[in-house]
Task: structure prediction
Amino acid sequence: MISPHVLPSTLHARLALALAALAVAFFPAPTSLAAPTDRHIHLEASRFAYVPAVIAVSPGDRVTIEFEAADVVHGLYLDGYRLNLIAEPGQTARLTFVADRPGTFRFRCSVTCGPLHPFMIGKLSVGPNWLLYRAIGLSFLSVIAGLPLIKRQALRDTP
Amino acid sequence: MRYDLIRLPLLKPLLRSRWPQLLFQIIALGGFVLAILAGLVGTPVGNHNFSIVFVWIAWWALLMLIAVPLVGRGWCSICPIPVPGEWLQRGAVLKPSGRGPSAGSGRGLSWGRRWPNRLRNIWLQNGAFALVALFSAVVLTQPRVTGIMLAAFLFIAVGTSLIFERRAFCRYLCPVGGFIGLYSQLAPVEVRVKDPALCVAHTPKTCYLGSDDGYGCPWQVFPGRLMKNTYCGMCGECLRTCPYDNVTVNLRPFGADLQHPTGRRLDEAFKAFILLGSVLAYSAVMLGPWGALKSAAYAVGTAAWLGYALTFLSLIFGLLPGLFWIAVRAGQVFARSNTPTRQTFIAFAYALIPLGLAAWIAFSLAFVFANLSYLWPALSDPFGWGWNLFGTTSMAWTPYLTRVIPALQTLALLGGLMWASATVHQIAGEQSPSVGHASGLSQSLPVILFCLLVTLALLGLLVG
Amino acid sequence: MTAKSAERAARLLVIGLVAGLALAVFAGRWVVETRHGASLLHARIAEAGGWTPGDLSATVGKPLHLRLTSDDVMHGFAVGQTDWPAVDVLPGKATDVTLTFDRPGTYTFYCTRWCGLNHWRMRGTIEVRGPVEDRLQTAAELATTTPPSYVTLGLDIDAPHLAAVIPARKPSAARGANLGVTIPAAYLTQDYYRAHSPAKIWQALRVETRHGASLLTDDDVWDLVAFVWQSNTSPEALAEGRALYASNCAACHGETGAGDGVMAAALGQQSHAETGGDTKAPVAFTDATSMLGASPALLQGKIIRGGMGTGMPYWGPIFTEAQTWALVDYLWTFQFETEYAP
Result:
C-alpha cells in the first residue's frame, strides 16, 4: 500500500511532469548516424496485401521500388511522400526517391482491385518511429500524472 | 455546472415546432432510401457506390467524429430508421393525435404491446452490434450486403413499431443505438428537467403519456427522473408536452454522466468491452498490414474465417472482460476492499467509455480521411452508372491529411487515456470511501494499467 | 396553416420524397441510357462471367455506342484486328466508346488489362452486318485468301523443335554484320527467314561458309544467323513487338522471357476441367535449344492458334498479321542481340 506522505508535493510533481511531457513531446530526435545507402525493394502486390508489407529504411536512403502486380492492376500510394505508382501483371513499375522525411508512413493501393481494396495497406518506416516512442512516453507520463490526484483528495478529506 | 441552452433566442421555437425535426428526418430518410436502392441495384464496386461511401464513410465520420462526442444521441432525434414505423404507430406524420401512443389509442396501427421484461436491457443490442462487427469486412465492402442490412433494419423497425409500443427498436434492438447511448454519457449536451420537485407534484405525467401538444416519451424514459443520457433519444417530445416548460436542453461539462454512481449495469459494461474489442480488431484487420487477416475476415464460411470469428468473439466477450476482471480483482486485493467484485467490475467498466470513444475517434480519423475523397464521385454518380449530376464524377481518389493524421490519432488516444484514468480515480473514490483514500490508489492502479495497455496496443496498431 | 392541412402537407412531402426518389433513380437511368444510346456493358473477371453482354451487333457505317464499366477490377477494352486504341474500363465508372465499322464480319473484343489468370478468356464478339446483304459473311469468306504460313508450309506446330547445335554465347547481329561475309540473297528473303528455324539457317550457312576464305567459327555463323534475323525486322517492328509482349505475354512468360511470369505458377495449378486441357508451364524464350529450333512460322502458328488447353491463348482474332510478325520478331531478342532493340 502506497502511503500518501511518500509522494512528492503536488506542485513540484505537476511541474516535473509537465517538463517531462514537453521534453518527450518536443525534444528533437537524434539524427541517424547511419550513412544513407541505396535500397532496392521488390514489392509485390496481390489481392489484398503487399509483400513485404512492412519495409524499413534509414533517413536519407535512396530507395528504388520495383513494384510488381501479381494478379490484377494494383497501385501504390505512399502517404507523406505522396508518391503514386501503378503496375499491371507483366509490367513491373519502377520508382526511385530519397527517403528524406523521417517517420512511419502507410502505403495503400490506388487502383480499385476488388472489395477489400480500401484496406490494402502496408507500412514504410523511415528511421525509428519517434512519434510512437513519444506517444508511449506520454502515455506513461499521463498515468503517473494521475497519481497525485489521489493524494490531493486524501489530504482534502482527512479531518 | 449547467447552462440552459433554451435561453438562446431561436432554439426554443425550433425545438418546440415539429417541422424542423420532420424536415431533417425526411432528408435523412431520403438518404437512407437512396442508400438502400444504391446498395441493391447500383454498382457492386463499393467505393463508387453511394450506399458504402455515404453510410460507412460520410455518416460514420459525422457520427463518430462530430455527433456523438458533441451532441450524444443527437443523431437519434433525426434518424430515419424508426420514423416510418413511428408514423404508422401514431397514425400521423406531423401532428400529435391528442393522446400518447402507449395506450394504443389514436388512429395508429400498432398492437402496442409492452416490451417483455426479460428483454428490458441492451443484451440484444450487444449481440446485434457484435454480429455486425463480426461481418464488417463484408458489410463495409459489398453494397448489396449493406443495402440488404439497411433494408432489414427498416423492416425490423417497422415491424417492431407495429407490435410494440413506442420506440422499442431504438431502445432494445438497434446496434448503432447501443453504442451511441453508451458514449452519449460523455456528451456536453443533455435534456433534463429544471425542477424535479415540480414533476413529482404534477399529474398526469404528460411527458410520459403524451398530450395535445406532443407524444409521450418514445424512449420509455420518465423525463422527471432522467439522470443520464444513455436512453434519451433527444426527440424533444417532452419539451413539447410539459405544461410547465420544465424540460430544457443544457450545456454541461464533458463526461458529466460518468459522475453518477447509480444505474450502472452489466449489459452496459459489456457494451464497453464489445466496443473496445471491436476497435482493436478493426484497427488490426482493416488498417493493419496483415493481408491474411483481412482475407480471413472476409471469406465468410471458410475455416480461416471461423478461426477469425472465434478469435474476435473471444476477444470481446472473453479476453478483454477477463483481463479487466483480473485487474479489478487485483486492485481489490491490494486495497483490501470488501465490495462485491461484480459491483466494482461494473463500476470500473464505465471508465472504458471515454477510452473507447477516443479509440473509435482515432481509428475513424485514419479510415475516414484516407477515403473521404470517394464522396465527391459518389455524389455525382451514386449508383456507379456513369452519371455526372454535379460534375464531380471524375475526381480521382486521394487521401487527405496523411501527414497529420498520426499526430491527431496520438492526441485522441492520449486524451482518452487521461480521461479514463481520471474516471478510474473518481470511481475508485466512490467504490471504497470507507477503506481510505490511499487504498483508492492501489485499487485504481491495476485498472489504469489495463487502460494503459489498451492505449499502447492501439498506438502500436494505428501509429506504429 | 391548420393542423389538418399541415399533416396533409407533411404526408405529401414524405410520399413525394420516397416515391419520387425511387422514380427519379430509374427515370434517370433511362434518360442517361437514351442520351448515350447504350446501356452499360459490364466487365467482370472471366471467372465471374467476363463481358455482359458478351455478344453485340452492329451495322456497317452506323456508329455503335458502348458504355463500359467494371464490376470488380480494372479492365480494358479493344477490338481485335482494328486500329482503335484500347480504353481502360474502370470499376464503378463509365467509359464511353463509339465504334464505326466499315467492313462486315465477326469481330472479337477483348480485355486489355491483366485481370487474373483467365484474363485472356475475357472476350466477346461483335457481329457486324453489311448494309445491303442480310446475311453475315462467314469467317471463311472474311479470312485472308492466304492461310497462315505454318499451314502452307505443312508444319506440325505441336511437334518438338529442338536445335541440334546451340551457340556458346549470345549471337549478335552487329558482330555478324562486321564479319565481312556476304550472305547470299536467298538467305535474306522474308520467306526464307520465316520458313526456317535459326538452327536450320545456321546449318545452311555453316555449309555455305565452310570453304570460304576466312575461317568462321560456329559462333561466328550464329552471328550471321542473328544478322539474317535483324535484316528481316526493323526498330519499329521490334518496338511494337516489345509493347505487345509487355501487355500480353510478360505476365505468363516473364518480363525476361524466362517463363517465370507472375501468372506462371498458378497456370500449372489449373485443373483439366477448368481449361479443357492439361496446362503447362509457360515456355521460356530464353531456352536456346527449343527457341533456336523453332521457325518464325511455327512461332506465329502457336501465337495464332494457341495452345489447345495448355493455357496458351489463341491470338488469331486479336492481332493483325503485321502485329503477329512484329511479336515473333521481338521474341528473338531473347536469343539475339541487336542495336534495333537496346
About this structure: DSSP finds two helices and nine strands in chain A. The longest helix of chain A spans residues 130-157. Chain A touches chain B through 50 residues (CB under 8 Å). The two ends of chain A are 21 Å apart (CA to CA).
